[in-house]
Amino acid sequence: MDLAFDPQLEEFRATVRQAIAEMLPPRIAELQRAHGGINSGHAETLEWTRILSERGWSVPHWPKEYGGTGWTPMQLHIFLEESSSAWAPDTCWGATHMCGPVIYTFGSDAQKQTFLPAFREGRYFLAQGFSEPGNGSDLARLRTAARREGDRYIVNGQKIWTGGAFASEWGFFLVRTNPDVKPQAGISFLMIKLDTPGVTIRRIPQINGDADLCEVFLDNVEVPAENLIGEEGMGWTYAKFLLDHERTTSSFIFTNKRELARAKALAAVEQIDGRPVAEHPDFRSRITRIEAEVTALEWSVLRELANEEFKYDRTAAASTLKVAGSRLQQAITELQVDILGPRALRFHAFEPEERDDAGPLWPTHAEGRTANALIARASTIYGGTLQVQKGIISKLAFGL
Q1: Percent residues over pLDDT 70 in the chain
Q2: Residue 140 maps to which CATH number?
Q3: 187 near 236, Cβ under 8 Å?
Q4: How many CB atoms lie within 10 A of CB 184?
Q5: Which string of DSSP letters, residue by residue, matches 326-381?
Q6: Lowest pLDDT segment from 82-86, 336-340, 369-373
């Protein structure tokens, strides 16, 4: 069953669609498409953020006093869906969706003036320094220490899986400022400039051919105390605030809808024994089942956006969306690979004469399908592992 929006929202959709078509440089959309929807490059992402900023659309989810649009949750949903459909890259996620809301909610006036315009205008990338070797998503066990000395902190420790750190000017880090209290109570939220002496960044080669993830080493790094966001010891609270939002938006609903449509289009032209894949009962059943799950996920996201009353804790609801969306992302990319069969193993572009009967679908479907399926394996890890999400749901929703 298709979801229907009221006529005013459909008018808004048409306006947004036309505006994106006019603003989005074709080369950025093509680069994004060639990468299968994974952000194509840091320079292009910042460029798109700046373009949106000129129209006042780079942070539509922020309060109006900080540069937001004042759109309703449904209008924001439509904007994000149209952006995804047009192959627009995300804005700098760490700045606009994660750290920005923490700063305008808990930061000082000086911090708001320093960071929020830069985030909104796409001046630089921002890295997230949460996970650590051996601890992963268990933030209560983090060991990176920040010792207060006068008007500065001395930071020592290591972070891992820090996406885009090599291209970032700043990072927001969870650090332990008090080792003598309950683990959650001794964590603080600190902004660190990544060209500070003592910061070393090492890129991690990934199985999909990228090297966006990094290790960050902090050796006696001196950080001004004014870079502490909010209160010392409140980092756990701020992290939960941030992650609740990340997990809700990590339902991957727009990506899942777009990639399912691509899988169906691919199944219509790829063949098994002279018949389109879509005509084979096993694939037809699989596609139908996934489509039903995507529709159910979209209904759940819309209920959350509409602030519908939930029986269970909203943090548990956000974790539920994250679990369902990340699993679907894996299921859909696996479906695409299975539809293509051995041809999905081709990573690189071929000359037109080398392409076969996949025709115009070849450059947007076959290239990078395996790479996307590989990186999708991490969707149940980043933003909080599947196991951590299940723990949150069992505790907050069922009291287990």
Answers
A1: 85
A2: 2.40.110.10
A3: yes
A4: 14
A5: HHHHHHHHHHHHHHHGGGGG--S---GGG--TTGGGIIIIITTHHHHHHHHGGGGT
A6: 369-373
